[in-house]
């Protein structure tokens, strides 16, 4: 388990320096990106409403999430989690749960009706994590590469 509530902080990573801080951990989830690609994408995504937050334990980044608020005809206003990862060495220690709980509270604060995320079909451990936190499979997500 995390050391103690006093050592845990969730910080917004709104700057380019914050994005750099998030990169090493985010690359565990998105290994296809190098630092330059990551920073360029995050810069573009921020214009579209993307936000990064990190969960730190004693100033060490343990989990990171990227999210945005969307409004859609099908569900109204919702918080969508693009990315959520806990460092592999610390999974199962409660960090992911704390960050997910924070994201749900953030959705409520931002007056969202729903909370959504997608998870790759191969990520079985992540699916168990989400099911264990009251989430369910709400739809199929279809995709088609255009290049």
How would you portray this structure in words?
The protein has 147 residues and is an alpha+beta fold. The chain has a single domain, classed as Gcn5-related N-acetyltransferase (GNAT) (Aminopeptidase). 35% of the residues lie in helices and 27% in strands. A 5-stranded mixed β-sheet has the order 1-2-3-4-5, sandwiched between helices. Strand 4, helix 3 (95-109) and strand 5 (114-117) form a beta-alpha-beta unit. Helix 1 (16-29) crosses helix 2. The radius of gyration is 15 Å and the shape is globular.
Task: Please supply descriptive tags for the structure shown above.
147 residues; 35% helix; alpha+beta; Aminopeptidase; globular; five-stranded mixed β-sheet
Order of helices and strands: EHHEEEHEH
Query: In what order do the strands lie side by side in the largest sheet?
Result: 1-2-3-4-5
Give the proportion of residues in helices: 25-40%
CATH class: Alpha Beta
Shape: globular
DSSP E strands, number: 5
Low-pLDDT segments: none
- CATH superfamily annotation: Gcn5-related N-acetyltransferase (GNAT)
What would you say the CATH architecture is?
A: 3-Layer(aba) Sandwich
Please give the domain count. Answer: 1
Instruction: Determine the N-to-C terminus distance.
Output: 44 Å
CATH topology: Aminopeptidase
User: Describe the biggest sheet?
Assistant: 5 strands, mixed
Structural class assignment: alpha+beta
Give the DSSP E fraction (strand runs of 2 or more residues). 25-35%
Provide mean pLDDT, rounded.
Answer: 93
C-alpha-based Rg, rounded: 15 Å
Q: Number of helix segments?
A: 4
């Amino acid at each position: 388990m995390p050391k103690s509530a006093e050592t845990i902080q969730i910080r917004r990573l709104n700057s380019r320096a914050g994005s750099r801080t998030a990169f090493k951990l985010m690359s565990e989830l998105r290994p296809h990106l190098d630092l330059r690609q990551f920073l360029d994408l995050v810069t573009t995504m921020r214009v579209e409403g993307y936000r990064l937050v990190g969960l730190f334990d004693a100033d060490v980044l343990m989990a990171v999430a990227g999210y945005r608020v969307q409004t859609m005809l099908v569900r109204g206003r919702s918080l969508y989690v693009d990315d959520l990862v806990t460092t592999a060495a610390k999974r199962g220690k409660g960090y992911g749960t704390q960050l997910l709980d924070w994201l749900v509270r953030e959705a409520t604060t931002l007056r969202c009706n729903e909370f959504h995320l997608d998870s790759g079909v191969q990520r079985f451990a992540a699916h168990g994590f989400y099911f264990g936190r009251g989430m369910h499979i709400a739809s199929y997500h279809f995709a088609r590469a255009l290049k």
